[in-house]
Amino acid sequence: MPPDAVPRSVRQRHSGPYRAAIVPRIATSTLTVDGATAALADEASREVTRFDAQLGGEVAPFASVLLRSESASSSQIEQLTAGAKAIAVAELGNGTTRNAVSVVGNVRAMRAALDLAGELDPTSILAMHAALLEEVEPAIAGRWRTEQVWIGGSSYGPHGAAFVPPVADDVPDLIDDLIAFARRDDIPPLVLAALVHAQFETIHPFPDGNGRTGRALIHALLRRYELTRAVTVPVSAGLLTDVDGYFAALTAYREGDPTGIVAALANGALEAIVNARQLVADLHQVRARWDDVVVARRDAAAWRVADLLLRHPVIDAATIARDVGVAPSNALRALEPLLAAGVVTEFSGRARNRLWQAREVLAAVDAFAARAGRRRPGS
Predict the structure, then answer these.
(1) Domains in the chain, start-ordered, CATH in brackets?
(2) Contact, 170 vs 23, CB < 8 A?
(3) pLDDT tens string 180-190
(4) For 55-91, what is each residue's pLDDT tens digit?
(5) Is the pTM value of this prediction over 0.85?
(6) Among 158, 135, 156, residue whose Cα is nearest residue 204
(7) Minimal CA–CA distance to 69: which of 236, 194, 218, 243?
(8) Edge-to-edge strands of the sheet including 314-315?
(9) How far apart are CA 264 and CA 215, in angstroms?
(10) Which strand (E) or helix (H) includes residue 216?
């Protein structure tokens, strides 16, 4: 930015040295939480495992929608909001809003996190970040930062910021230390995930996308240590109920108190499970209603399309052909019983490359997001 574009008082305020954090290494550190927080984390761990086991036999319908819901909630924490329909359209490559495309990037980052959970290393973290930002910020996607970043204050410089992460040269070594800590087997998994997340956010290794990548890292650890095996527990939806408390817990961690972030993640997981169970119940109810109103043979392709709509509530002919196993020319025929019953409607208004939506599924997902964004009393 040219100097004459910035008022002299601002330039003066941002002249001279500033203090960047010196982040302690934690690979071999003993980070403890009090008994009540440890008990809360243990309860949340049991509930996460139970939720995952309960949905284990229904992975196909619900794994995608839960992962997408977690991605949307994680994006919403960063004030990137998009409705279920916009996100579903963007997943088909028809995104018209940057926010929706960004959420789809978060979906890709989450999938990368789960796929790479067994290979947790710096390269896998870079892969998560690349998946997150390759569509919207390709110049920085999958690369450690090379410049100073800061949180709060002015966009002009770090002076007066709420927090100034470590200098860029320290990032690779700090990430190596973080990975060593993340591989420890002497810390309960949910506690470990919370601490890894807080340390990652303290390092702030990227110019952008740190929060979303850091929350994807939580899921990589839950999967790595087998708290989850089949589905994604949308913990970000729980964190959304008290975003201020979540950010305060990250600040407390940087000041030496790890208890708050463990409690925030545990409470977030418990809140998320309640919300996710409601979403699953709503989708069960939608699918049961379709059984009552759709007229088709039990072996008709229409029922496979109905199941597909629970996973992807906006579809096109190519999606039907690929996922249902019919020729593209027969996609509309498979859809006709659902159209006749009002289960799906066409909304693109195009003669070619048409799009169909399942409004009831979209409404259920949007209701999940609305519940997640509803702050707890007093928070």
Answers:
(1) 21-278 (1.10.3290.10), 296-365 (1.10.10.10)
(2) yes
(3) 999 999 999 99
(4) 877 766 688 899 999 999 999 999 999 999 999 999 9
(5) yes
(6) 158
(7) 236
(8) 314-315, 356-357, 345-346
(9) 13
(10) helix 210-224
